[in-house]
Recover the amino acids of this structure.
């Protein structure tokens, strides 16, 4: 059923971020909140700041960032993300969210949360709750209390009115939800497709095999190293903050983090954009934003196998192991899809489309009358 967003007139949205709002690079939280903000009034709830750090954080409190869009950075009690102190922190945070929402939003509200750490926030009044699942919730490297996050993730799956997942794995693992919908990450087409200056000279003249993003535990560095050794005629470039050691090779350049505004200039010079992820549950449940960053730049993609990007050939090819990965790169280099076609694929998956999709699913839930038991008024 095609449900027009006009069936949700006069609504505002509260978007609870799991990652810092407006960071560089921006995460899905920022992109979706900004896209919804072009459609209706939005209150973004940024990650809280602890009471003892307030003086060092000029962003604490409520501020307007655009027409019809406000950001609240709540001030919380110390230890607000830890298991035993979280309930007290929630009460303090929820009061501030409710106060801000009453100031800037209409009475009818949609709450979209990316944050299993914050949970349901039952004291915050809303008419519908959407739980946007971006990753596996309780990855030990990213959370203070695995048990707290696992419990709150379960509560959100049970009580949210709508559950979405960015990958097939996340949708299939949302078993306690009444229904989960596949809504992948989106594309920042306007940013990555814009005309840029000449590419940086240090990228050279030969084929450039690029990667943007954190150089972290998620990458298969052995695969990257073996492919680089086997193909000295290719230049491998990695743009991102490195938290793990990378092999030193003549044609493997780790150039560090670059500002988000500068990335299109680099990425548009790539001949192939890569997603060389390890095969593990966290990565299989993900939908890397960089896939659409590459495509919006006009650059085809080679990835290790990920369920979320199956079926996107010839714009996104997969290769398993060093040989398969190198073969996929070679295929792309020998017969690259046209730049405009890569960008056209990205445009079909814009963040504006994702915002409209979520809102339409909410409207459909009203029409069907199928609503789970909610903890909200």
């Amino acid at each position: 059923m095609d449900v027009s967003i006009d069936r949700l007139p006069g609504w505002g949205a509260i978007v609870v971020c799991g990652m810092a709002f407006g960071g560089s690079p921006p995460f899905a939280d920022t992109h979706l909140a900004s896209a919804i903000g072009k459609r209706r009034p939005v209150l973004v709830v940024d990650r809280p700041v602890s009471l003892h750090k307030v003086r060092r954080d000029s962003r604490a409190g409520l501020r307007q960032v655009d027409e019809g869009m406000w950001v609240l950075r709540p001030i919380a009690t110390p230890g607000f993300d830890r298991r035993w102190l979280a309930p007290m922190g929630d009460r303090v945070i929820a009061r501030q969210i409710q106060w801000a929402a009453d100031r800037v939003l209409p009475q009818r509200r949609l709450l979209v949360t990316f944050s299993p750490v914050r949970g349901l926030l039952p004291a915050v009044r809303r008419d519908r709750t959407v739980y946007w699942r971006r990753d596996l919730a309780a990855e030990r490297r990213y959370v203070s209390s695995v048990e707290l996050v696992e419990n709150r993730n379960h509560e959100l799956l049970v009580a949210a009115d709508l559950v979405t997942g960015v990958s097939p794995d996340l949708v299939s693992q949302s078993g306690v939800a009444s229904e989960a919908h596949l809504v992948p990450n989106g594309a920042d087409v306007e940013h990555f497709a814009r005309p840029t200056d000449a590419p940086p000279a240090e990228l050279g003249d030969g084929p450039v095999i690029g990667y943007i993003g954190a150089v972290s535990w998620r990458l298969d560095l052995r695969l990257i190293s073996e492919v680089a050794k086997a193909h000295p005629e290719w230049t491998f470039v990695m743009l991102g903050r490195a938290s793990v050691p990378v092999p030193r090779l003549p044609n493997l350049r780790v150039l560090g983090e670059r500002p988000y505004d500068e990335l299109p200039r680099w990425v548009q010079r790539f001949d192939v954009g890569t997603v060389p992820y390890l095969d593990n549950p966290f990565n299989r449940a993900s939908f890397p934003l960089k896939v659409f960053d590459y495509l919006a730049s006009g650059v085809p993609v080679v990835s290790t196998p990920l369920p979320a990007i199956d079926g996107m050939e010839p714009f996104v090819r997969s290769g398993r192991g060093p040989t398969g990965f190198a073969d996929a790169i070679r295929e792309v280099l020998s017969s690259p899809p046209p730049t405009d076609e890569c960008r056209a694929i990205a445009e079909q998956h814009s963040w504006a489309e994702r915002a409209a999709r979520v809102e339409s699913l909410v409207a459909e839930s009203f029409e069907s009358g199928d609503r789970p038991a909610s903890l909200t008024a």
User: Anything to note?
Assistant: The CA atoms of residues 311 and 317 lie 9 Å apart. The mean pLDDT is 89.
